[in-house]
Amino acid sequence: MTQALRFVLIQLSAMLLAAVIVSAFKWPALFWATLVAVFSLVGALRWHDRKWWAFIHSAFPFLLLLALNVSIDSRWYLGALLLSWMVFGGVLRNRVPLYLSNSQALKILADQVPEGARLIDLGAGTGTVLAWFARYRPDVYVNGVELAWIPWLIGRLRLARSKANWQHGDVFAVDLLDYDVVYAYLSPEPMIQLWEKAKNEMRPGSLLISNSFDIPNAPPARVLDIGDWKGSRLLVWTI
Ligand SMILES: C[S@@+](CC[C@H](N)C(=O)[O-])C[C@H]1O[C@@H](n2cnc3c(N)ncnc32)[C@H](O)[C@@H]1O
Predict the structure, then answer these.
(1) Would the N or C end of the chain have less CB density within 10 A of its end CB?
(2) From the alpha carbon of 170, which atom of ligand 1 is closest?
(3) Which pLDDT score is estimated for 96?
(4) 221 and 151 share a domain?
C-alpha cells in the first residue's frame, strides 16, 4: 500500500472514531480535531515509514477545521489542487519531489563529465542541469527527461533556444545505452530500480552519478563532497 493511501485511510479512520466519541458526548468541533490529531498521530507512528508523517497527520484536522471556518471560494481549493498535482503529482507514484541541483553540485558534476560526452538528467525538473551545461559546457550533448507537467513546461521555455534535448516522460522508459554519463537527483525510493536499469542498459565504462542518494549494497567508486549546507555528495558508479 502506498504511503499516500495509508495517509487517507488513517485520517478517515481517525475522523470517524473521533466523530463517534464527540457526538456521543456532544463535544465541540475543536475536541473532534484534537482527537483526530491524537488518533492519527498514533496511526502514523505505527504504519508510516517516516516520522514526519506524524506531524502532517496531527496538523491536518486543525487545518481542515480552519479551512471550513474561513470563507474562501471553493474554486481556489480546486485551483490549488490542480496546480499541486501538475507540479508534484508524480510524488504519489514515485516518491520523488522537486528540488534542484545547486551550482556547487553542477561544477563538481561537470568535472566528472568527459569532453564531448553524452549526458542525460533523469528527472530533470525545470531544466537546471541542462541550462547550466548548455552555458558552461557546450561541448556536452545533454538530454533531460521529466514527468511532471509544470516543471517540464518551465524547462521547455527555459531551454527553447539551447541545443539541449528536452523530453516529457518517465525515466524508466528511456534507454540509457546512448549515454556516457547518467545523472540522477531523485530520492531513496527508486534507487534500486535505477541501479538494475543502469546495469542492464549502460555501456561498460559509462558513469552513473547520483546526487545525494545511495544505492543499497552497491558501494560507489567515489564520493565527492559538494560542500553545501546540507552536506550533499555526488556518488559515482562506473558501470
Ligand atoms: C529532485 S528533482 C531534480 C531535478 C533536476 N534533476 C535537478 O537536479 O535540478 C527530481 C525530479 O524528478 C522527477 N521525476 C521523478 N520520478 C520521475 C520519473 N519516473 N520520470 C521522470 N521524472 C521523474 C520529479 O518530477 C522531479 O522534478
Answers:
(1) N
(2) 20
(3) 81
(4) yes
